[in-house]
Amino acid sequence: MAEGSDGPLPLPYSESELQDALGSEWKALLTQGYRWMLFGRLMDNRFLGLQRQGRIGFYGPATGHEALNVGCALALAPEDWVFPGLREQLLALVRGMNLQGYVHHLFGDGMDPSLGRQMPCHPTAASVGYVSMASTVGTQIVQAAGSGYAQALRGKGGITVAFFGDGATSTSDFHAGMNMASVFNCPVLFICANNQWAISVPVSKQTAVTELAKKAKAYGMPGERIDGTDFVRVLSTLRSARKQLSAGKGPVMVEAVVYRMNPHSSSDDPTRYLPPGYLREARAHDPLARLEALGDRLGLLTPEEKERMRKEIEDEFRKAIAEAEVAPPPSPDSLFRDTLKESVWPLTEERDTFDRDQGGHFP
Ligand SMILES: Cc1ncc(C[n+]2csc(CCOP(=O)(O)OP(=O)(O)O)c2C)c(N)n1
Ligand SMILES: [Mg+2]
Question: Atom of ligand 1 at shortest distance to CA of 135?
Answer without folding.
Answer: 25
